[in-house]
Amino acid sequence: MYVSKIVKNIDADHIIVHSLRKDTPVNFVQDFTKNTQFIKLIMKRNISLPLDILNIYYLRKIIKTVQPDLLHLHSSKAGILGRIASINLRVKTIYTPHGFSFLRKDISKMKRFFYFFIEKTAAQLIRTTYFLCVSKEEYNQAVKLNRKKTRVKLIFNSVDTGQVIDRSETCVNPYQIVTIGRLTAAKNPFEILSIINDLVKTYPQLNFVWIGDGDLRIEFEAKAKSLGLPVTITGWLPKDKVNQILRASFIFIQASLWEGLPFSLLEAMLEKKPVVVSNIPGHRDVIVHTVNGFIAKDTVEFCNFISDILLNHEKAQLIGSEAYKTVINKFSDDIFVKNLLKFYHYLL
Question: How far apart are the C-alpha atoms of 74 and 274, rounded to whole Å?
Answer without folding.
Answer: 30
